[in-house]
Amino acid sequence: MDIQASLNKNDVCILIPTLNEEVTIVQLIKDFRSEGFENILVIDGHSSDNTRKLAEENGAKVIVQEGKGKGQAVQEAFQLIEDPYIVMIDGDGTYLASDVHAVLQPILDGHAEHTLGNRMANFEAGAFTKLNLAGNKILNKLFGFAYGIWLEDILTGYRGFTHHVIKNLSLTEMGFEIETEMTVESVKNEMKVKVVPITYVARHSSAATKLNPLRDGLKIAKTIFRMARLHNPMFYFGILGTGLTLSGIAVGLYVVNEWMNGVTRIPMTILTALLILTGIQMFIFGMLSDLIVSLHRETMRMLRKRDD
Ligand SMILES: Nc1nc2c(ncn2[C@@H]2O[C@H](COP(=O)(O)OP(=O)(O)OP(=O)(O)O)[C@@H](O)[C@H]2O)c(=O)[nH]1
Ligand SMILES: [Mg+2]
Fold first, then answer.
1. Mind listing the pLDDT tens digit for each residue in 102-129?
2. Do 86 and 158 form a contact (C-beta atoms < 8 A)?
3. Ligand in nearest proximity to the CA of 155
4. 3-state secondary structure of 224
5. What are the pLDDT digits (tens) for 61-106?
6. Closest ligand, as measured to the CA of 28
7. Keyword Transmembrane helix, does the record have it (predicted)?
């Protein structure tokens, strides 16, 4: 922890996006201050409770986001922050300020540019609902397949960044897809990402979640899939191709079965051929796009090397 001892803690911006977190925000700010971190920025999503007032009274800088959604808030904050290090944490009191050292360490050591606090490492009973835990595991697996890198908790709300990372991620998602996008963008741009174990505690009984597990989970899955088009086109077009080819085969089997019973289904035969051909074409698109992406990656690597 030598590096942390020499760290000027004002060089670390603690960024907290909030929406109606009056139950937990005060304790969170106090905990960070007692860890020695005074540079605290709350970006608020037009809370209708006392979040902003309480945060200000307890020494945080508070700004109100211009638009809506956690994603928009994070993007706006990233534009404003000019500190060398950034730690982002949810304001709902489910993460511990004392884990900030674990989140920062690999960044200060130069081993990482973006750290993910892994909630799976140690979570309190009740911190995840069964649905949330299953959803998180599925989405982590989907991410692993799509991007070929196994990160235990891509959706964590506790992260560390260097200034370079927050200024170079190109973010567009407005809602809870922002975590996926930050992780994908970092992997895509070959930034050094590292997972660190943290503790995840249960949400306070009187604090409400803003996340709808099914609706937001589905949106996140779609984001992982959609973004794979540019990073791993074989995965994206492969899934489309498999879907189309399998539907073609299913229709084809029905056509053959009918034909054996003496019924000829011409339109369905054409449909079978079209589905299978389009499916195969998707695989070919996948291979071509894969080639383009590999060449692009190589060019970017050379450009980065030249700039270093
Ligand atoms: N500024 C801003 N913050 C938001 C918005 N929506 C949610 N947040 C904050 O983002 C953080 C994460 O939101 P949560 O509702 O805890 O979502 P989550 O942690 O993904 O979901 P849970 O697992 O249910 O806790 C919290 O600090 C929220 O207050 C928003 O629209 N604007
Ligand atoms: Mg939460």
1. 999 999 999 999 999 999 999 999 999 9
2. no
3. 1
4. helix
5. 999 999 999 999 999 999 999 999 999 999 999 999 999 999 999 9
6. 1
7. yes
